[in-house]
């Protein structure tokens, strides 16, 4: 489907020619409006609504209520959700998020958590794709259990699923691993109170001389060696998994088999973090 920006004179004509997307339910419209209302300023919303020939009601008290009203009126007029998809594509254009990749991915995840129930997802390339739709939360959870069965024999830590549940539901293993590694770093920050990232975070939190967190008592050389080895595994995870994924084209990735191995490793690291204890050393 081509979702290029359209001017108001050709909007309806083009909509008639493209594949019609069934209207969203009221609950889906409300969820989308709330999610998209957080993705842009009021001025962005005003501009895009005008460019795409939506009826607007600026008297609405909040951005999401304004969007909900505009989306509802659009579906009443055109009997489809095509115009809403165009709005998403314009507001979520990757060009608008240059230098803010993490913000873009967070917003995209929120939108996809809603779109998946209609059988669509919005890709990092700024295009929509069809995917296996989940019609209920129960069905969505069932799909997650099915995906977990692919990792049978591997214990996937709950903290892993916490950060990449949406990607696993969509069977988007590339980004599931990417989000899981980011989640690993975030958990270390939450546990330590240190706002660094990657190797710098590990070096600060698990320094052998003055560690902020320790995986054992550090009383013997064996324990110290184990602690240093764990820190090396953490840095290896960020250096060999997360950083390449941030720069490597998805098409070059090996997919499900790699995902199973990587998520198993990240699960192991989380289990080690479960047993970490804070020390009495000053964080400064």
Task: Tell me what the structure shows.
The protein is elongated. It has helices at 11-17, 26-37, 42-51, 63-78, 82-91, 101-115, 137-149, 158-169, 173-192, 198-205, 221-247, 256-274, and strands at 120-122, 128-130, 213-214, 277-278. The protein has 284 residues and is mainly alpha-helical. A hairpin with a 5-residue loop joins strand 1 and strand 2 (128-130). The longest helix is centred in the C-terminal third of the chain and has 27 residues, at 221-247. It has a two-stranded antiparallel sheet. The chain contains 12 helices and 4 strands. Helix 2 packs across helix 4 and helix 8 packs antiparallel against helix 9.
Give the SSE string.
HHHHHHEEHHHHEHHE
* Strand neighbour order, sheet with most strands: 1-2
Radius of gyration based on Cα positions: 23 Å
Global shape:
elongated
Biggest beta sheet attributes = 2 strands, antiparallel
What is the helical fraction, as a range of percent?
55-70%
């Amino acid at each position: 489907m081509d979702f290029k920006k359209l001017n108001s004179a050709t909007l309806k004509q083009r909509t008639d020619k493209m594949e019609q997307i069934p209207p969203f339910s009221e609950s889906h419209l409300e969820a989308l409006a709330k999610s998209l209302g957080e993705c842009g300023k009021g001025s962005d919303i005003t501009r895009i609504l005008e460019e795409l020939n939506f009826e607007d009601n600026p008297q609405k008290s909040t951005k999401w209520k304004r969007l909900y009203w505009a989306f509802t009126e659009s579906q009443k007029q055109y009997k489809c959700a095509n115009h809403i998809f165009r709005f998403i594509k314009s507001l979520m254009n990757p060009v608008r998020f240059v230098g803010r990749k993490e913000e873009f991915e967070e917003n995209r995840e929120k939108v996809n958590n809603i779109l998946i129930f209609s059988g669509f997802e919005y890709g990092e390339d700024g295009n929509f794709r069809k995917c296996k739709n989940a019609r209920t939360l129960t069905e969505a959870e069932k799909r997650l259990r099915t995906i977990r069965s692919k990792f049978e024999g591997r214990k996937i830590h709950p903290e892993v699923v916490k950060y990449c549940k949406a990607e696993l539901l969509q069977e988007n293993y590339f980004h599931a691993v990417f989000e899981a590694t980011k989640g690993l770093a975030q958990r270390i920050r939450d546990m330590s109170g240190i706002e660094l990232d990657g190797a710098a975070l590990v070096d600060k939190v698990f320094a052998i001389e003055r560690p902020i967190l320790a995986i054992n008592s550090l009383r013997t050389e064996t324990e110290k060696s184990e602690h240093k080895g764990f820190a090396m595994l953490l840095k290896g995870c960020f250096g060999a998994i997360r950083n390449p994924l941030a720069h490597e084209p998805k098409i070059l990735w090996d997919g499900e088999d790699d995902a199973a191995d990587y998520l198993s490793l990240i699960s192991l690291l989380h289990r080690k973090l479960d047993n970490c204890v804070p020390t009495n050393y000053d964080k400064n």
